[in-house]
């Protein structure tokens, strides 16, 4: 197929996907495209930019709300040099378009549109995949040789043919549309469980006195959706965030985790006699109504402004590490406590059940130890044989017949004795026989009497005969060489082995057997040492495979105990006698499973897709996370989607992080690098923090660019700018406060994001308090969120 007809097919499928899957409006003319208030696109239309630059991309997408211009271009050349030339030309067109957008004089203070380039290529044949390889080579060369990728975003959309040629790729190739993110924010699952009684007032200023540093410091927040604060190490950035945390939650997580119980001693500036105080002033408040808290040993001298978890409004490196590197059950705990406070009651019940189950398992460990010790104690004797081995079997049939006869008589005597005991017990409690004929009544009365019957008198004789015959029968077997060798070294049951077997006797054998023969360990000792009759209930010690039933019972009990350590429901105790420790652990295991099922159901509900949704835009949290993660990543094509499958394993509710699916899934925290994982936590935090009503309507990101390079930091800043505009479009009024210790990071964010900028003063060499002016926003920084109009910049060619 030539490139032209193939390009027609790719663009036709793209047109269908943009309209039917993504839900965009197709404009038929440039005028309609410019006039549309919603996201729209043109297909193969020639457009003139700034009255001189003529372009005709495969598709041109305009999102006026988020201020995005998307240029989709085909790459269908076959020769490597042609592929490289096409890619370079498309990047140059996108970069120059961005330049013209920035230079548009008509935009004034309005935010300039960002430009996103999407390379559309086929991925159907081996030749197509060679083209994709060359696209990657060209982009790598561009990163090294130009700064174009700092000015425009680049995505890759591959066409696979078939009925759904772009299946699962649109969200990653077009993340700047924020369609999945918008769906998540529109979902009830992203909303706070209950609205605050009064809306959060906008914080106007924060004043600290003798808080870690001497003297007074005041931060005045300008009216802006985003605040960028820069300060060198030691200038007090952490103190600002910590003070907000203390007033918002009544505690400081860092001190609590360190076990510090005396807040004032840690917080008050060293050498100062005046107390440390925190003063907040809110918009429209008079200075006299400024709220002041004094730091005391236990926290604050009065109730805090709220009782929220600090992790619900502040993202810092410790929270990043907990969301990334913790075990799945610890990650689930952090996630629920930070962003889903309505699960607190059920989660506390789950944690209490988990603690009770763990305590019961600790007690059950002694049972497991006893079972393991008994198994080890029995192991040396499993092949022991009673009697003297002989190769002849002349009298075996006669002995077997006698044994069967004596066993039948003994069993009849035992059953008669059990029946008579039952009748006597019943009569002692007042039982009267039903009306019977005189002769039958006499027989019942005689049977319930105290005089021994002939069977009762003969039972001991028959039982002794059975034991003697069993011992003789046990000696009739072939002689092996290993038995001859063992016979030269007689076995003896050690005292600790006997004790180990005695400790589990009541679980291995019925109470009637224990009453008749004593504990199993003692019996084994006597049989091996003194040649006592080998009968022990149904067991004939020394017979062929005589120990196998005992080992099987021990294994069954050990298996039942092992099941309690996992998420499996407990099985009935397989032992003959009751095990209190097992029954207690089983009861707590079921309580934990019930509590876990309740929390898990609520957890799954928060993570689920919309009812009936089947595309990659399904309204789920993870779809929005992957969209933002792609937006924050320069090389969007290089990563798979993350999954957050919840689990209930080892009796603990967990939240895994995986790349791939099914057997191919790997732990994301071991596969991705630190910068990528930090970008994931930023995305997750920004998507979930709106679920919690914050006392100040303020979201804090404390140095979120850990281990990120310059290009990733730029992509993150550009993505946050779009998210902030989406919040405004959805009438969300939370403000974001970023803190940076690197001046270059601040400048990158300042270029991409309209924000108020603040610079904290450096430390003074004086130990005493120094008068400092209030820290206010720098003048001249762009704060306008509304994007420019393109009507005077674009026109039909």
Short description:
The protein contains 27 helices and 26 strands. With 797 residues, the protein is an alpha/beta fold.
**Average pLDDT level:** 86
Helix coverage percent: 40-55%
Q: How many distinct helices?
A: 27
Ends: how far apart?
30 Å
CATH topology-level fold name of the domain at 219-266 and 306-329 and 610-778: Rossmann fold
CATH architecture of the domain at 219-266 and 306-329 and 610-778: 3-Layer(aba) Sandwich
Runs in which pLDDT lies below 50 for 5 or more consecutive residues are 388-394
CATH superfamily of the domain at 219-266 and 306-329 and 610-778: P-loop containing nucleotide triphosphate hydrolases
The structure class reads alpha/beta
Shape: elongated
Characterise this structure.
Helices cover 46% and strands 14% of the residues. A hairpin with a 4-residue loop joins strand 5 and strand 6. Strands 1-2-5-6-7-8 form a six-stranded mixed β-sheet, with helices on both faces. A five-stranded antiparallel β-sheet has the order 10-9-12-13-14. The chain has a five-stranded parallel β-sheet with strand order 15-23-24-11-25, with helices on both faces. Among the domains are: 175 residues, Trna Endonuclease, Chain: A, domain 1; 241 residues, 3-Layer(aba) Sandwich (Rossmann fold), CATH 3.40.50. About 1% of the residues have low confidence. It has 797 residues and is α/β, with parallel strands linked by helices.
């Amino acid at each position: 197929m030539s490139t032209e007809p193939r390009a027609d097919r790719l663009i036709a499928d793209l047109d269908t996907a943009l309209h039917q899957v993504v839900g965009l409006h197709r404009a038929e003319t440039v005028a309609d495209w410019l006039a549309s208030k919603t996201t729209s696109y043109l297909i193969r239309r020639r457009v003139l930019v700034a009255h001189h630059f003529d372009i005709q991309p495969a598709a041109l997408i305009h999102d006026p709300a988020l201020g995005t211009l998307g240029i989709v271009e085909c790459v269908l050349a076959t020769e490597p040099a042609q592929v490289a030339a096409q890619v370079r030309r498309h990047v140059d067109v996108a970069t120059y378009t961005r330049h013209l957008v920035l230079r548009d004089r008509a935009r004034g203070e309005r935010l300039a549109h960002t430009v996103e380039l999407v390379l559309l290529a086929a991925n159907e044949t081996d030749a197509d995949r060679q083209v994709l390889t060359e696209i990657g080579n060209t982009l790598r060369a561009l990163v090294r040789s130009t700064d174009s990728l700092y000015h425009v975003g680049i995505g890759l959309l591959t066409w696979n043919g078939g009925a759904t040629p772009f299946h699962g790729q649109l969200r990653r190739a077009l993340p700047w549309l924020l369609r999945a993110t918008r769906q998540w924010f529109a979902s009830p699952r992203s909303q706070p469980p209950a609205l605050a009684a009064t809306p959060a007032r906008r914080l106007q200023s924060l004043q600290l006195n003798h808080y870690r540093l001497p003297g007074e410091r005041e931060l005045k927040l300008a009216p802006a959706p985003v605040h960028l604060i820069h300060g060198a190490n030691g200038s007090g950035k952490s103190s600002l965030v910590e003070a907000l945390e203390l007033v918002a939650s009544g505690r400081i997580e860092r001190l609590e985790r360190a076990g510090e119980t005396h807040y004032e001693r840690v917080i008050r500036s060293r050498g100062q006699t005046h107390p440390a105080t925190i003063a907040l002033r809110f918009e429209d408040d008079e200075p006299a109504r400024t709220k002041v808290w004094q730091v005391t040993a236990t926290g604050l001298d009065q109730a805090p402004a709220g009782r929220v978890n600090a992790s619900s409004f502040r993202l810092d490196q410790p929270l990043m590490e907990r969301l990334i590197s913790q075990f799945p059950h610890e990650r689930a705990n952090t996630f629920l406590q930070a962003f889903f406070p309505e699960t607190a009651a059920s989660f506390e019940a789950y944690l209490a059940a988990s603690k009770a189950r763990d305590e019961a398992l600790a007690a059950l460990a002694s049972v497991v130890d006893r079972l393991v010790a008994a198994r080890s104690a029995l192991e040396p004797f499993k092949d022991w044989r009673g009697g003297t081995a002989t190769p002849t079997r002349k009298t075996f049939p006669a002995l077997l017949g006698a044994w069967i006869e004596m066993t039948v008589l003994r069993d009849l005597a035992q059953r008669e004795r059990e029946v008579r005991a039952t009748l006597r017990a019943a009569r002692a409690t007042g039982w009267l026989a039903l009306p019977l004929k005189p002769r039958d009544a006499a027989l019942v009365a005689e049977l319930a009497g105290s005089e021994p019957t002939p069977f009762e008198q003969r039972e001991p004789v028959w039982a002794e005969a059975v034991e003697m015959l069993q011992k003789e029968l046990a000696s009739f077997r072939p002689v092996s060489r290993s038995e001859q060798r063992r016979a030269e070294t007689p076995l003896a049951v050690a005292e600790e082995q006997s004790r180990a077997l005695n400790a589990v006797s009541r679980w291995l054998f019925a109470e009637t057997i224990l009453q008749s023969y004593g504990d199993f360990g003692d019996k084994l000792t006597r049989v091996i040492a003194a040649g006592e009759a080998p009968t022990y209930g149904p067991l004939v010690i020394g017979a062929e495979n005589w120990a196998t039933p005992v080992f099987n019972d021990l294994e069954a009990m050990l298996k039942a105990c092992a099941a309690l350590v996992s998420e499996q429901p407990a099985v009935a105790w397989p032992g003959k006698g009751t095990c209190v420790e097992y029954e207690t652990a089983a009861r707590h295991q079921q309580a934990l499973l019930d509590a876990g099922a309740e929390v898990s159901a609520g957890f799954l509900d928060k993570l689920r897709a919309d009812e009936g949704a089947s595309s990659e835009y399904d309204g789920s949290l993870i779809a929005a996370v992957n969209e933002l993660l792609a937006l924050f990543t320069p090389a969007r094509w290089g990563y798979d989607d993350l999954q957050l499958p919840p689990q209930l394993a080892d009796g603990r509710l967990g939240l895994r992080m995986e790349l791939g699916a099914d057997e191919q899934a790997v732990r994301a925290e071991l596969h991705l690098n630190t910068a990528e994982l930090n970008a994931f936590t930023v995305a997750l935090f920004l998507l979930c923090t709106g679920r919690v009503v914050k006392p100040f309507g303020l979201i804090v990101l404390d140095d979120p660019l850990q281990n990120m390079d310059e290009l990733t930091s730029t992509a993150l800043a550009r993505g946050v700018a779009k998210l902030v505009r989406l919040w405004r479009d959805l009438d969300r009024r939370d403000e974001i406060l970023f803190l940076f210790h690197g001046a270059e990071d601040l400048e990158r964010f300042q270029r991409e994001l309209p924000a108020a900028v603040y610079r904290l003063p450096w430390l003074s060499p004086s130990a005493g308090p120094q008068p400092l002016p209030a820290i206010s926003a720098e003048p001249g920084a762009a704060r306008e969120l509304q994007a420019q109009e393109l009507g005077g910049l674009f026109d039909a060619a």
